Amino acid sequence: MRLVFTICAFLVLSILLFAACNSSESVKSQSSATPATSPAPSDNARRITATEMHDLWEKGKILVVDTRTEPAFKESHIKGAILIPAGDVAAKTNELPKDKMIVTYCT
User: What angle do CA 59, 51, 16 make, to 5 degrees?
Assistant: First the structure.
C-alpha cells in the first residue's frame, strides 16, 4: 500500500487518462496543487490527483495501465496495474473496459 501512495505522489503530473468511448465526464481543470507556471496539457487528457486515483482505486472504479516496458513493469509496478506498452495503447483501446476510468502512468 505504501508503494501505491509513493508511486501515485510521484506520478500526479504524469497520469494520463484515455477516456472510454461511453464517457460523459467533462474535462476537469488541473488540480490547484499544480504550479500556476505549468503549461496546460495539449493532449486534452483529464489529470487526476493521487488522492482521486486512490479513492477510485479503492472503489474499483479504475483500471490502472502501466505504459512502460516489460522489464520496467517486472521490476516494480502499482499493485493491480496491467502492462500495455505506450506504443500498443492505441491498438488495444477496444480491449479496455468501457465502464471504468482508465488511468495510465509511466516514469
Answer: 90
* Strand 16-17 relative to strand 101-105, pairing: antiparallel
- Of 27, 52, 55, 51, nearest to 41 (Cα)? 27
Enter the C-alpha cell of residue 94: 477496444
Q: Which residues are bridge partners to 16 per DSSP?
A: 104
pLDDT tens string 31-76? 444 444 556 667 788 889 999 999 999 999 999 999 999 999 999 9
The class (CATH top level) of 2-20+43-105 is alpha beta
Question: pTM for the whole thing?
Answer: 0.59
